[in-house]
Amino acid sequence: MTRKASIERNTKETQINLSFTIDGEGAAKLETPVPFMTHMLDLFTKHGQFNLDLTANGDVDIDDHHTTEDIGICLGQALKDALGDKMGIKRYGNAFVPMDEALAQVVVDLSNRPHLEIRAEFPSQKVGTFDTELVHEFLWKLALEARMNLHVIVHYGSNTHHIIEAIFKALGRALDEATTIDPRVKGVPSTKGML
Ligand SMILES: [Mn+2]
């Protein structure tokens, strides 16, 4: 069984069509008007061994905020839908990823309890034309809609592009681990009997 889900979301601000496969090959087909996010989602997909098909349009004449935020919403919803009843998953994932001088750690719990903790400083407010504060916006909406507990820690780093890239790679790897089916897990991995 391949775990996947599709989301279509149309508002006056953005139009998003997204298909996400947990059990993928790292293949991304991305069309977005936010090149830096395209780059980040490409490596998230690659390092998570997911597949991601995404077509996004949005009011980037204002700024990248709505489009980045709404991609996070749709990806979170697709992740939640694709996980289904969460039978047999590992549930937790932890990944450290270095990118040259930067080291990021991402820890996730697919707990059905949305939470974001982020310990990261971005030395630059912009990477290219992208506002780096939108990383927080994206991660929070992703965590909220996927109903996961997401902790992002940047241990150190000086280049903002490297720092954010390390975060997205670690996010992919942590989610890959958390979504993996462990044959030893019977039912859902919770003493409550549900997630
Ligand atoms: Mn890069």
Secondary-structure map:
Elements: E1 4-10, E2 14-21, E3 27-31, H1 35-48, E4 51-58, H2 65-83, E5 92-99, E6 102-109, E7 115-119, E8 126-127, E9 130-131, H3 134-146, E10 149-156, H4 160-179
Parallel strand pairs: 3-4, 7-10
Antiparallel strand pairs: 1-2, 2-4, 5-6, 6-10, 8-9
Helix pairs in contact: 1-4, 2-3
Residues 39, 161, 165 line the site of manganese (II) ion.
What's a quick, concise take on this entry?
The protein is α+β, with helices and mostly antiparallel strands and 195 residues long.
Radius of gyration: 16 Å
User: Uncertain segments of ≥5 residues (pLDDT<50)?
Assistant: none
List each distinct ligand once.
manganese (II) ion
Our estimate of the beta-strand percent is: 25-35%
Largest beta-sheet details: 4 strands, mixed
In terms of structural class, how would the helical and strand content be classed?
Answer: alpha+beta
Q: Looking at the structure, what is the overall shape?
A: globular
Helix content estimate: 25-40%
Number of alpha- plus pi-helical segments = 4
Topology pattern, helix = H, strand = E: EEEHEHEEEEEHEH
Distance between the terminal alpha carbons, to the nearest Å? Answer: 20 Å
Record field, number of beta strands: 10
Global mean pLDDT: 97
Spatial order of the strands forming the largest sheet: 1-2-4-3
Overview of this structure, please?
Belongs to the imidazoleglycerol-phosphate dehydratase family. Its main location: cytoplasm. With about 200 residues, this protein is of the alpha+beta class. Helices cover about 35% and strands about 30% of the residues. The chain is built from four helices and ten strands, in the order βββαβαβββββαβα. It has helices spanning about 35-50, 65-85, 135-145, 160-180; strands spanning about 5-10, 15-20, 25-30, 50-60, 90-100, 100-110, 115-120, 125, 130, 150-155. Strands 1-2-4-3 form a four-stranded mixed sheet, with helices on one face. Strands 5-6-10-7 form a four-stranded mixed sheet. It has a two-stranded antiparallel sheet with strand order 8-9. Strand 3 (about 25-30), helix 1 and strand 4 form a beta-alpha-beta unit. Helix 1 runs parallel beside helix 4 (about 160-180) and helix 2 packs parallel to helix 3. The longest helix has 20 residues, at about 160-180. The chain is globular. It starts with a strand and ends in a 16-residue tail after the last helix. The mean pLDDT is about 95. Manganese (II) ion (MN) binds near residues 39, 161 and 165.
